[in-house]
Amino acid sequence: MNLSRPALLTDHYELTMISAGLRDGTAERHCVFEVFARRLPTGRRYGVVAGTGRLVELVRDFRFDETEVAFLRETGVIDAETADWLSRYRFSGDIDGYAEGELFFPGSPILTVSGTFAECVLLETLILSVLNYDSAVAAAAARMVTAARGRTLIEMGSRRVHEEAAVAAARAAYLAGFGYTSNLAAGQRYGIPTAGTAAHAFTLLYEDEKAAFAAQVAAQGKNTTLLVDTYDISQGIRNAIEVAGPDLRAVRIDSGDLSVLAHQSRELLDSLGATETKIIVSGDLDEYAIAALAAEPVDMYGAGTAVGTGSGAPTAGLVYKLVEVDGRPVVKRSENKATVGGRKLAVRRHKPTGTATEEIVVSQGMPEQLPHDRALQQSYVVGGEPAALPTLVESREHLRQCLISIPWEGLKLSGGDPAIPVTIVPAG
Amino acid sequence: MNLSRPALLTDHYELTMISAGLRDGTAERHCVFEVFARRLPTGRRYGVVAGTGRLVELVRDFRFDETEVAFLRETGVIDAETADWLSRYRFSGDIDGYAEGELFFPGSPILTVSGTFAECVLLETLILSVLNYDSAVAAAAARMVTAARGRTLIEMGSRRVHEEAAVAAARAAYLAGFGYTSNLAAGQRYGIPTAGTAAHAFTLLYEDEKAAFAAQVAAQGKNTTLLVDTYDISQGIRNAIEVAGPDLRAVRIDSGDLSVLAHQSRELLDSLGATETKIIVSGDLDEYAIAALAAEPVDMYGAGTAVGTGSGAPTAGLVYKLVEVDGRPVVKRSENKATVGGRKLAVRRHKPTGTATEEIVVSQGMPEQLPHDRALQQSYVVGGEPAALPTLVESREHLRQCLISIPWEGLKLSGGDPAIPVTIVPAG
To answer: Do A219 and B256 touch (CB under 8 A)?
Structure first.
């Protein structure tokens, strides 16, 4: 379900390049573009491919209506020939790439777009916007899931990021293994379970905390979460159990030293007979804060700002580069010499135990396939038509399996090298 | 022009609170919520209010259609009474706040929302999403504008952020004083001038650089910008002038040590007679990199990633807090004691020379007005109806004037205290 028209979510220069290329016919040359990261954010050991499912729908809807073409004409961005071409535009090429939930490393060709220069270059901005944001969120969220060691995570960062980015962030966090989101649009669009009960404002609305808790329990029953830190946490917990009884599902603590408070709260709940009542903590949690609570009696984490902003790496650093023109490999000469032209195929190599050891990326050829290799690319779009894709739940399971497969050092939160090396084999 | 339906861009708990409050009537209590920042991002000296113009349109369109209500009912988020209430929902309260382009500091009440609890709490998530993102971008962009010392800036970061966030970022950067954006949707929706000519891919598409330059000049004339760093920059500049002649408008350099390259390129251009040809530089520029180029012969900067991601502060830290219920000030007791309940009015105090000295914020009362004080709040929505707002160009000029008015230390890029203090006067 796309809610906005994607065609103008595009950089001006994509259209001036098309205008120039259409005049002399070069815009019709067959090209291959690849999306990859030159490096991971500082200290990160893997990236997570996310957003491709969303992207395929946007590519399908990428058409210019009369108003958009008129805007481009009137502002002088395009000439008459380009206006005519755009009004008939529909991507008719192929898109292949790594599955959503797949890990990537510097040089992994995570998306390959082939077709004429014009039809492919036109998608550059949108492709990078979607993949850079969603992958940044998914990578940060995956680290939080690792840090949570099996405890459930709730994504609640919508208010910290652009309102539509929030929906994409909820999707990427769920892909990464979060259990719930607070974002209702993500629930509607993607079927992600949503969660939420009450804010401090609800408690402040009533004469006292007990009245607020009573109103909440009257509406939602005991299977709810009472927020106990509006005034005094110990008294809040006593009030919660007094009002809801020891069968209350959960309390939430959103401030203070969560490590100390979780411990004290557990003891107090147990002393009140609420031994099954869960403790949910929230408040500026990132992967490090979550890891620091591993030994505390916490049942669930709410994470917000750090999810939607990529926990220090708000964009994934993915670029979209022309690698082939009419079958000829091309490369920008002045850049890092490691860049290799030509369309690439990739496999991930594993030990017989299933542990990944290396990624092999071959330009203009087939990688040798060893027994435990896994080919990394799948079809997303064939001749302009979207291919059948895994569900979001399947992609989520795929990522879970990928994270099991990397060497254990790759799951450390501390800074270090990529979990596995990528070997790029040039053409010829 | 809103392109998506905003009602579900909302946290689940806003609706469970409304459900609970409607059962006992408390949801109809008259409330005042305020948006403010407890602190600025580390080292920042001011915040910039941005997004309110966008927000007012979203509030106007904030309605629940049948599909949305059905989704909320079927998933058990709301009960039947709340479903009925939501299907009739339309914000009927008042929204006041600081103008777009106004500066803010810790404690500045930048937005005040009043009405029933239910109608106000429902807007919390959307209000914070819009203001947190747009203000984060505007503050970073304003620092870049200061660093550029009058030279023109082009926002070209769309590909680094969520595709819809990119449009909001272009708007916020223009508000902050950028001259152009690469984002076409921002051009269409907000009338912001767009710019762009060609990427490295365009040069790679042709047999050689001169052929690519010739194609671009044939399409766009000499009043274009040739990207000269695909192969060798010196040869690129020679090729550019050979093809376009010394009247070429500009060359762009997107890689390498821009300081050295700008200097060498200026000398080379001058030696080729292209003394009027401008030099545009781009490539991971933030406010510090821009400042470092102040003495170099650069004419224009292209800034991308750092703009859309807030240059290290991707969210503005704004919160939405209930401060008054039926005229009674309320405050969450366990937090920082500096928090003051009650609806607040704000003025900025100035020296007779026009330099700002202090912000005075009074709870439940009128600030004393001295001769050079300026009241900071204006009407955005009155009784549910949007008020007349300044244009984006007017808001841009307002910010420019505000930045002139703060003490000069406030414009330093280095870390430090807020440019002026905020004095909050409690009620009574």
So the answer is: no
What is the count of residue pairs from A and B with beta carbons less than 8 Å apart?
A: 331
B124 interaction partners in chain A (CB closer than 8 Å) = 159, 199, 201
CATH assignment, B12-137+313-394+405-425:
3.20.140.10
Residues 6+ apart with CB under 8 A from B207: none
Q: Which two tokens stand for residue B235?
A: 């040869």
Domain(s) of CATH 3.20.20.70: residues in chain A: 145-312
What pLDDT is attached to residue B239?
98
A130·B3 Cβ contact <8 A: no
From residue B268, give the alpha-carbon distance in Å to each of A32, A264, A425, B237, B263.
35, 71, 38, 8, 9
Which residue has 């080292």 as its token pair? B43
Q: Confirm if A168 and A52 have CB atoms less than 8 A apart.
A: no
Neighbour tally for A354: CB within 10 Å = 10
Q: Pick the residue from chain B with its C-alpha nearest to A120.
A: B201
Q: Hey, are the CB atoms on B334 and A255 less than 8 Å from each other?
A: yes
Q: Best of A12, A261, A320, A324 to disrupt the B interface by mutation (most B CBs within 10 Å)? A: A12
Which residue, among B270, B48, B51, B414, has the nearest Cα to A163 in the 3D structure? B51
Nearest CB among A75, A125, A128 relative to B187 is that of A75
Please say if the pLDDT value at position B418 is more than 70: yes
Residue ranges of chain A that CATH labels 3.20.140.10: 12-137+315-425
Residue B9 is classified by DSSP as: S
Instruction: Say whether A334 and B255 touch across the interface (CB within 8 A).
Output: yes
CA–CA separation, A146 and B164 (whole Å): 30
Nearest-CA distance A357 → chain B (Å): 30
**SS3 state at B160:** helix
CA distance A76 to B64: 39
Note whether ipTM > 0.95 here.
yes
> Residue A2 has what pLDDT?
39
- Is B68–A10 a contact, with Cβ atoms under 8 angstroms apart? no
Residue of A121, A162, A218 with shortest CB distance to B23: A218
Q: What's the CATH architecture for A145-312?
A: Alpha-Beta Barrel (3.20)
Question: A386 pLDDT exceeds 80?
Answer: yes
Where does chain B hold its CATH 3.20.20.70 domain(s)? 197-298
The structure's pTM equals 0.98
**Nearest partner of A21 among B36, B212, B190, judged by Cα:** B212
SS3 of A1-61: the string is CCCCCCCCCCEHHHHHHHHHHHHHCHHHCEEEEEEEECCCCCCCCCEECCCHHHHHHHHHC
Contact (Cβ atoms closer than 8 angstroms) between residue B257 and residue B283 = no
Contact flag B24-A71 (C-beta cutoff 8 Å): no
B2, B4, B12, B249: which to substitute to probe chain A, counting the most A Cβ within 10 Å?
B12
A313-360 residue pLDDT tens:
999 999 999 999 999 999 987 655 567 999 999 999 999 999 999 999
Asked if the Cβ–Cβ distance from A9 to B167 is below 8 Å, we say: yes
Domain B197-298 is found in CATH 3.20.20.70:
yes
Superfamily of domain A12-137+315-425: nicotinate phosphoribosyltransferase (3.20.140.10)
Alpha-carbon distance B301 to nearest alpha carbon in chain A (angstroms): 16
Indicate whether B2 pLDDT > 80: no
B58·A163 Cβ contact <8 A? yes
Per-residue pLDDT of B350-363, as tens digits, reads 999 999 999 999 99
Give the best residue of A59, A64, A162 to mutate against chain B (max B CB count within 10 A): A162
Nearest Cβ partner of A159 from B20, B128, B206? B128
- C-alpha angle B130-B132-B135 in degrees, rounded to nearest 5: 95
